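Prompt: I keep going back and forth on a fold encoding question. Comparing notes only helps if you start from a blank page. Show me how you would write down a chain together with its backbone fold. Please set it down just below, with no commentary around it:
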Amino acid sequence: MSARGRAPQRGRMKLYVVRHCSTECSEKKIYCGSSDIPLSPRGEEEAKSLTERAKKYRFDLVISSPLLRARQTAQAVVGERALPVLYDDRLRERNFGAFEGTSVEAPEGKVYRYSFPLQYPGGESYLQVAARVYAFLDEVREKYAGKDIFIVSHGSACRVIRSYFRQMADEEFYAYSQPNGTIEEYEM
């Protein structure tokens, strides 16, 4: 059985999930969810390192969030390879609504940050993020069976992707944070 209890499709596939490289917002611990910002100078250095690390992997395509920081990271993964990069809105960061641009440490935002069903005012809940990311992963399983794929996304989506493959209690779910520019490997 697969991670979600379904019979596996023909051929195994590997997913290499990358959280985009650093931005000024991630360095300053500021919500930047749907804001379309570039990599920081530190993120550009991480991207160069990621290009070298990605050379060690065999993969068929890259699917990325369309936000600039993810697109720049996806290009780093591809490097000199002639591989397609597809963009999917379901991989976007969680929309933090009224909290965009504020500190992730602000106490008033934590009630939304650590609640699965609660939506940020004008934004999304983790439940909504999970629905779109799980639908994306289900589609990838069907459409690309037997392929190895790099997925480039964001912190919230990477946390949800991990929960697709591993049972996680609330504490583990909220404690998990994939560092910027790192690769997690999953098998379908």
Observations:
- Residues 1-9 have pLDDT under 50 and may be disordered.
- The domain at 14-187 is CATH 3.40.50.1240 (Rossmann fold).
- Helices lie at 24-28, 41-54, 68-78, 107-113, 126-143, 155-165, 170-175.
